[in-house]
Every structure is written in structure tokens, then in C-alpha cells.
Amino acid sequence: MKSFALLTTVSLISLSTLATVRPVMALESRQPAETRIAQGNNQDAIGHYNRGVDYMQQEKYDLALAEFTKAIEINPRDAMAYLNRGVIYYEQGKPDLALSDFNQALNINPRYADAYYNRGFLYGVQGKPDLALFDYNQAIEINPRDAMAYLNRGLLYLQQEKPDLALSDFNQAININPQFAEAYSNRGGLYADQGKPDLALSDYNQALNINPRFAGAYYNRGLLYKEQGKPDLALSDYNQALNINPQFAEAYSNRGGLYADQGKPDLALSDFNQALNINPRFAEAYYNRGVIYYEQGKPDFALSDYNQALNINPRDAEAYLNRGVLYADQGKPDLALSDFNQALNINPRLAMAYNNRGLLYAGQGKPDLALSDFNQALNINPRLALAYNNRGVLYYYRLEREKAIRDLRQAAELFRQQGDAALYEKVMELLRELGAV
User: What are phi and psi of 38, to 5 degrees?
Assistant: First the structure.
């Protein structure tokens, strides 16, 4: 009997359904000059400060920076000028200077909620969640009506895998500000992760009712539609997100994944390229482009992209898995085994990695190790048709005919249910050779 054992790549991946919210920082801190500084000899500082705010709102950051600096030179105790200059430094990619100014604002005014909020935001961006959480807590303690602080603390809780705390904060943000589109969108993402698509869709719709130009909400709703098997609606939402924000790399990457699923590799490749033009450090786009190159029979290009994805994100289990598949195809079993092992070290629940490592072991004449891996793959994912097929083939070579027929029948039924006619027919051919049809 001709064996049927495929090393199969995992599907294209989508990004998290939570679009990162990057809030407008501290623009609300502008106040009438007479309420800020009562002494007449500081009128010049007032003028520089207010001109700085005007320039900030116009996104003329160099001019704004100069005005806030002049305000600080005249009045070194102007906490609001430090705060807003810190925002400009952040916008200019100077986090150390931003942090220094936020710290200075808090030294002058230890009850300055906006300064805690902005410093917390900066710590979050820098991957310092404990410091960020402390600052968000401080901001909320000082100003319990700060909806944005609740939203960002909720996002922080979500990153820490504390969904109940995250949901509570998203709810609180919406209670404070029922027109807070970003809070609805992120709560929708949480509902989607919890397997509550109706609640998620309702929140995405509400976000778009509030702000019809909210690219992130279109993007998130597109992800939901794709998961629900509604590719036309998903494509429409990705297109809308890109119409609003042509620099939305994640939307290009996920639209590319949709095109790949629809058998349109050229459109998919174009979108992955565009995502990488916008963000050359976008690991998922390298990974997805690598899958396209692999399927197009361009292993060198695929390998380059998998390597790049892993250079950017060494914890990408799927990239290790697919690179291992590529190495196995190239007759490099030691490299393949190393990558499958690494994938499983990162994600012990990655069923396809067990399946492919089992195939490798089978090819190396290690049937017991192969059987153990196929069993583990099916314990994790009882609907993994390939693993039933491969275990059935292994049973056949072990002269366990009844077990082989049972697994191959299960594989055929799953392929039929999953709409994979080609693989269904191949398994049925095996069953006919066994006289089991």
C-alpha cells in the first residue's frame, strides 16, 4: 500500500482581535491662563504654554516643543508644560526625555493624575507592566472619572491574562463615557476571545456608530467576520479600515490572509509586502509571506521569511513549526526535529507540531515515538484529520489492520466534514486498497 503522510504547514495567522489603543496624551490639560498662573509677571510663560498647546493640536511638534521649553525656562514649576513637552518627546521617539519630563511634572505636583496616566502609558509601551499598573492605579485614585485610564489599565490586565479585571475596567470606562468608541471596540475584542461573538459584534457596531471613521473597529469586526466564515463581510471591513488608514499594516496582513484562503496568492503577496513596507519589524507578516512562498515552491524565500520572523519574535511557535516543515522537505531531519521541539517548548498545545514530529520519527524508523506524538496531537485536537490519517498509516505498517481502518475512516469523515475533497479522496483510495469500503 502506498503510504499517505503529509507534512502540512499551519494556516495563515491573524493578529489579536484587540487593536492597540494609542490615546491622545494630555491635550486636555490646556486650561485658561488666568486659572493657571495668577501672578502677572508670568504672563509670558502663560503665552508660551498656550501657544505650545495650539501647535500640539496642529501636530507641529517642533514649534510646540520650543514654546513649552520657553514656558519652563520662565517658570520651572510649570508641571503642565513638563507634561506636554513629555508628550512631544514621546511622539518624536525620545522615551527617555519623555520619562524625565513626566517625572518632573510629578515632582512638582504629586497629585497630577494626567502625569501618572501618561507615565503609565509610556511604561506599558516599554514593556514594564508593573510600573504601568502602579501609575494607572494612581491616576484612577486621584481621578476616579478618568475613562482613558480605566481603558488602558484594562488593556494591561488583558495582556496579563486577567480577563475579568479587564472586562470590569472596560465596563467602567463605558459607564463614565458612553460615547467612548475605543472602549467598546476593546471590550468587543475581549468578548470575541471569550467565545461570545454576538456580544463582540454588538460592541464593534456600537463603536462604529459612535465613530464611523474608526479604522480599528472595522479591522476588529473584520476579524470576527472571518472567524464566523463570512469572508465577504470581512473583506469589506478590511477594505474600509485601509480606506481610513492606508498605513494600517495589520489590516494589510489580515486581508492578505483572507486572499490566501480564497486562493488568490498574488493579492495575498501584495498585501504582505505592503504590510512590511509600512512596518519592517512585523513578524506575523514575514511568517504569512513565508507560507505563501512555501506554497509557491520558493523554499529559499520562505526560509528567509521564517528566519526573519524568528529574529523579530523568537517565541513564535508556528514559525518554528513551518521552518521545521521546510527543513524536513529539504532532507535536513536534525534541523527539522530541533524546530519541532522548539515549537513544542514554546507551545505544548500545538497539535500540528506533534503531528509533524511524529511523521519525522516515523520516517526515521522510530514508530513508538511517532505513535506517541500522533496520540498527543489527537488528545489536543480530536478533529485533526491529518493525525488520524498518519496514525492509521502507522498502524498499517505495524500490522494492526483494524486500528488502521478505524483511523483512516475517521480521517476520511473529518476531511469530508471540513470540505477537503482532495484529501478525502486520497484516504478513500487507501481504504479501498485495504478492502474496507
Answer: -85, -25
Give the Cα separation of 295 and 302 in Å (integer): 9
Residues 323-353 as b/e (b if ≥16 CB within 10 A, e otherwise) read bbbbbbeeeeeeebbebbebbbebbeebbbb
The separation between the first and the last C-alpha atoms of the chain, rounded to the nearest angstrom, is: 15
Closest CA to 68 of 111, 110, 98: 98
Q: How buried is residue 80: exposed, middle or buried, by Cβ count under 10 Å (0-12/13-18/19+)?
A: buried
Q: What is the pLDDT along the chain (437 residues), one digit of tens a residue?
A: 222 333 333 323 333 222 222 222 222 332 322 224 334 447 788 889 989 988 888 889 999 999 999 999 999 999 999 999 999 999 899 999 999 999 999 999 999 999 999 999 999 999 999 999 999 999 999 999 999 999 999 999 999 999 999 999 999 999 999 999 999 999 999 999 999 999 999 999 999 999 999 999 999 999 999 999 999 999 999 999 999 999 999 999 999 999 999 999 999 999 999 999 999 999 999 999 999 999 999 999 999 999 999 999 999 999 999 999 999 999 999 999 999 999 999 999 999 999 999 999 999 999 999 999 999 999 999 999 999 999 999 999 999 999 999 999 999 999 999 999 999 999 999 999 889 88
